[in-house]
Write a structure and sequence with these properties.
The chain is of the alpha+beta class. Helices cover 20% and strands 29% of the residues.
Length: 272
């Protein structure tokens, strides 16, 4: 028996409206046997970078599938609808706005890209405001059922794909300039830092760090788990994706600092 086809689905649609359910319905009308994995539907509204980060970090834990991702602030404009094939046999469907590229690079790199333009494989007429329903969901369903990506439209040169600015941490003397990648529902602030960055400035073995963010200067424990500090105290931990995260044990670091995605932070040695 052949394995059941899978579509993973990530969006900024939320669950207050019918958008996610309607996309499910479109997929299942075309391909009733498809299994849909809902990865995340509370990507920050219209925040492409947040969607790209979550897709990239989640990918290693997802089975081989068609990865449908819709964070599309330019819906209805001249931006292209895209199918992206990557080196390890993964296929991505979404807008050509940089959302798909970080994940594709993590699984062998983009190998081919196609514009979705064949109306025979879409719902018509195509809405200018809900192309997740009319373009991307049908494309994902047909791909899951074995339709070739080349049937959807012309091939696109990989160099012509829209790029997303990558926020890289950088070192200056004994400290690091970092950015918050995302905030989870517990208020933990995931930074674009890994332990290797701390090693670059000689901080990897320090038990305490200084963090400056949103006008506040904190002296925090660098520990292995939240409970290494008392409740309501700040701590820096390595999260489940290997990123450094600023957290509060049994509390909400984002609320305490009034910080969010793209907040900047400086991490360095504690003041003596």
């Amino acid at each position: 028996m052949s394995p059941r086809p899978i579509v993973s689905f990530l969006s900024d649609y939320g669950l207050e409206d019918e958008f996610v359910g309607v996309c499910h319905g479109v997929i299942l009308k075309i391909a009733p046997e498809v299994l849909i994995i809902d990865v995340h539907h509370y990507i920050l509204r219209q925040q492409i970078r947040h969607g790209a980060v979550v897709l990239q970090q989640s990918l290693q834990y997802l089975p081989d599938s068609v990865h449908l991702a819709v964070v599309d602030p330019s819906v209805g404009s001249g931006r292209r609808a895209l199918i992206l094939e990557a080196g390890e046999g993964q296929t991505f469907v979404g807008p050509d706005n940089g959302l798909l590229l970080p994940a594709a690079r993590d699984c062998g790199g983009a190998s081919r890209a196609y514009e979705i333009s064949n109306e025979d494989l879409l719902l018509t007429p195509v809405s200018r405001t809900f192309q997740g329903r009319d373009v991307f969901a049908p494309a994902a369903a047909h791909l899951a059922m074995g339709v070739s990506a080349s049937d959807f439209g012309p091939e696109i040169e990989l160099d012509d794909l829209a790029e997303l600015e990558v926020l890289e941490a950088w070192a200056h003397e004994d400290h690091l300039h970092a950015t918050v990648l995302q905030v989870d529902r517990f208020g933990n602030l995931q930074l674009n830092l890994k332990k290797d960055h701390l090693e670059q400035v000689g901080l990897a073995d320090d038990e305490r760090l200084e963090v400056r963010a949103e006008g506040q200067r904190l002296q925090v424990r660098y520990g292995a788990t939240f409970s290494d500090v008392a409740p309501d105290e700040f701590i820096m931990v390595e999260d489940s994706y290997g990123q450094l995260s600023l957290a509060v044990n049994n509390g909400d670091a984002a609320a305490r600092l009034r910080a969010g995605a793209d907040t900047t932070a400086i991490v360095g040695p504690p003041r003596r």
